[in-house]
Structure formats: C-alpha cells, structure tokens
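ugh ok fine here u go
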Amino acid sequence: MNKDKFINSFNNADKIILSNIYDKIILANKIPKVIYCSEFYTPNIWKRLLEMRGSFNINTYCFGIFEESERRMLAFSNDFYSELEYPLDLLKIKLKSSFTNIKHKDFLGAILGLGIKREKLGDLILEGKTCYAAVSSDVSDYIIYNLQSIGSSPCLVQKVDMRESSIPCYDFEDKIIIMNSNRLDAFVSRLCNISRSKSVELIKNGKVLIDYACTNKKDVELRENFILTIRGYGKFKIDKQVGFTQKGKIKVLVKKFI
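structure:
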C-alpha cells in the first residue's frame, strides 16, 4: 500500500500525522527492532491501524497505560513481542489545597499552558484532588519541574512506578437505552433526550464526534467500543447490545464517562 492510499483510508485525520505513521511502518518492515511513536493518538487512528495491520504484514501494538485508554501510543515490528517498553510515563499530580473545585479541563489546561502539545499527553484520570496523566517520556521531566499549580492551587508532581502501583480506572455511569436502529442520529436523540431533528442539527453543526473525529453524516452505524462525544452533553462509550424488547427494539448498554 502506498502512502497516498494509506492516508486516504482514514476519515478526518491529520495528513502529516498519518504520513509520519506510514514512514514508521515502512521502517519497521526493514529493520529488526520495535519502532515506537512518541505521540498519543485518538481512537479514529489507532483503531483503524489495528484493522489494517494485515495490509502491511507488520505487528501493530498500542498502549495508553489505563484500562480502556482513549489516547494510545503506537508501536510497529516485523516480529512478535509480548512485552514492549513504550516511551511514556505515568505522572501523579496532587493538589496541596483541599479547598478547591478543580476539574479535568483545569489539569489539562495547566499542562498545555507549559507549551506542551496535546499529542504528547494521553488520558487524564481524576481521583478526588489527584490527577493521573499518561505523558510521553520526552516531556515528563519538564512537566515535573515546571508544573507548579493547577489554577490557584499549588500541586506536587511525581512519576508513578507502574510495576508497583495500582493504575486508576475510568468511572462510568451505565445506561441501557432502547433503539430502533444503530444510526448516529438515533443514539444522539436517546442519549441527550432530544428530538431526532434536534440531534440531526447537532450533527450538522459539528457538535458530534465519533472516536474524536467530527462527522456530519446522521446515518452512520455505530458499533461496539465507539466513543461518542456530544458537545454540551458528555462523552459516551457504546459498550454492547444486550438484547431486544418484546417489540423487537434494540437494547444497548452505553457507558457515560464521569
């Protein structure tokens, strides 16, 4: 597969990012070592690469530290490996003040405010006043030495030994919804408790993302493990179909990120 065909097989993904990934795949085919990417990629990229791995006769791996990580690093090799050493670290950011209401966006904004690109950060998970952040190893020390506060609250940043410490998990709110079909507009309508026409309006206005990629197609069929982001309403994971009603409608388990 040439580079142009590779790039065109992705929907709504940055061509420069895809070009760099393609070059690493080709390199991994030529040399007897694992080739790592030092950035984190959204599901629309790493899921598609896992689907395409047979096209390159290459082993494709991805990892984001947390169970059910959304953003993940990639690795490629022409040999099989059961264990890989990804160039990433897990940072623990603990607030020193207990009299503050800091949210996920505040931690993310503070880190990005240091001049770090979003691609160098993976997922961030909050546990009370502590944030666990997956970060590329080439920026972890910089964050440790320069991140002094989140908003007006001082903080302490340190690396977590992932071999000896428990890794936090996402919290979800489970919800079973009844569907006539797996179409995108039907999901948006049910999850947001709005009319079908209003859901179509959200989609057309770019307020709905599938696996972090914007779409304006209301009739896209959603599958298991798709991440659905609806701006103003929240982020959801389509978990699985759990059965049918007596009238034949689909029962789907959806997990809302808390």
